[in-house]
Amino acid sequence: MPNFIIKTHQKNAIYKGNQIYILNKGMNSGKPQKEPFTNSYVILFQNEEDAETVYWLAYSLWKAKFWHHSLFGSVIPFLRIADFKKDFISKVNEMLQEHELHKKQIQALRLLEQKEDQFQKNIVLINEIRSVILSNYCKK
Fold this sequence. Notes:
Layout lengths: L3 E5 L9 E6 L8 E2 L6 E6 L2 H16 L7 E2 L5 E2 L1 H15 L3 H41 L1
């Protein structure tokens, strides 16, 4: 089981070692990232492998909209750290019970993420080509 510490990220804080950040405000609360968000929690790890494992678990929970039931507030919803810690730790322990299944799912998620990035780049290229064709067509 990964060993980690969860705390509120401070704007100018510098953390040693490995960490991931979890967005805590808005409808994307629970979104993990390797770079800090303005409103986020930081999860600190002893090693890179644990950070990578927990990143993909957090990513899975965020994509499944797991945190939506825990959001508070009417204008800008937010995720309380006590609720996040309690639910996140129990979910990580539950999800890691089947370690081989977890490895396969992480591999599939990484592949999907790569494909999604490739498709986004292709869409940008298609839009650029369309723009060039239309500008050349309209100049004639």
